[in-house]
Amino acid sequence: MAKQYETVIGLEVHVELATKTKIFCGCSTEFGGAPNTHTCPVCTGMPGSLPVLNKQVLEYAMAVGLATNCSISRYSKFDRKNYFYPDNPQNYQISQLYLPICRDGYIEIETLSGSKKVRIHEIHMEEDAGKLIHDEWEDCTLVDYNRSGVPLIEIVSEPDMRTAEEVTAYLEKLRLIIQYLGASDCKLQEGSMRADVNLSVREIGAAEFGTRTEMKNLNSFKAITRAIEGERERQIELIEEGKTVTQETRRWDDNKEYSYSMRSKEDAQDYRYFPDPDLVPIMISEEWIEGIRQNQPELRTEKMKRYREEYDIPEYDIDIITGTKKMADLFEETTKICGLPKKVSNWLMVETLRLLKEKDMDADQITFSSRNLAKLIELTEKKVINSSVAKEVFELIFTEDIDPEQYIEEKGLKTVSDEGELRKVVQEIVEGNPQSVEDYRNGKEKAIGFLIGQTMKAMKGKANPEIITSMLKEML
Amino acid sequence: MSELINDEVIEYVGILAKLELSEEEKEQAKKDMNRMLDYIDKLNELDVTGVEPMSHVFPVTNVFREDIITNADSRDRILANAPAQKEGCFKVPRTVE
Known about the structure:
The structure holds 2 protein chains of 2 kinds. By secondary structure, chain A is of the alpha+beta class. Chain A has 15 helices and 17 strands.
């Protein structure tokens, strides 16, 4: 019988924090500026420049630690990780090796096989590196240090996961917690959340872990799942052939669905860590930790509970809406303006989800405002527009965040409720469709639907269907 | 004198530090580094039971800055330090991927 293998997975997750400025200098962290316009002597490693820690970085790290059940180190400091690479102008990265800010936490994940605790080994603070752009014309590399010094936290899990499903559940839970805290937007595609996968395989029942590899360059949940499957198979194949797995860093190529050894960077894996003499230690008081704990924003579980109490919306809706911070914020803001939670929930659950799926987008990519959705709901409630017009207008709100009031005015989409005008049109329809009129009078109830449709068509969709129906019934 | 720093170690340290040393420089560095290790051994003679390891000599902790942007675009000044530049970037020899 073929041997049965178990996959053992641990994750190193890097998250870019949502601070306005970099971790050790007052440069902006804003994404997408022209190259090197957010730089200074500190983040370009000029001799003599001195780093000073951004307090918000520390507080975000503590908040994430508390939300993931970690203990916060009362005494913490920074170390230098030495390596030469042009993305790192100092020739060392400021990180935390010996006394990381958070330790020994866990988060609870849910999968089809039930709930499970994934332990967190530590969370530490560090700085991001610059971006390298390979210039094909001149065969050289261009360096943009705008990202150099952007604050990161690295969340290191214990090797507690066994399947790609568990990994996805862990990442989603982590992302949700961090987004709810407002500590990061955690976008995998844009790189504000990055996961390195440490993976080994062993025969089921074996006491020892196998040799692990580390995989980088995973920028979507799908890529992570494929990389786990691919690497598991590669390692099992090696073992079955009697070969050994080498402990190394590998780069996942999602197009080829295969990982490649990154030997070039492996030459000197000797980082010679030592305490950074430029940064003084951090002492954290019990009161400080307590203050952060008190100010923790509402997390998902609490939010779900509050929704159940405050809003009369189905449990299924609560689950979907609180599933992303973006949806939850949109729901709350819109409800606050229009006061109609059930209507807001309907627009989010039906039309918004439909458009997201159609356009292959994540909820995080929603750009329309709560103000315009609230206006649309109000216009529909006041019967200024009917529901089919509302759906059309919503598509434009979704794509361009138009002001529905203005749009309806400009395009003349207001529902015609003027009885005189309507009556005239209905009269014409009745006269022009004697067959349907006959059918209806002979008891074919359905025939009225056709007449309503014809009237709506003549009114270009702008009529109030209820008024048309009652007029038709009266005339017939 | 300590003999820990041999030819092999000097070679390795040179690689890590990206330094190319001449034979004389290697000999000199070997001597200097062995002397440093001797000094560290001297410290090992002290009884440090119960003494917490320290990373900083000054009794200063918690130096922070607020999360406020203080630096404006000073790209021209920053790039003035670049040995070579192109399109607003530092230009370096091609890195291997």
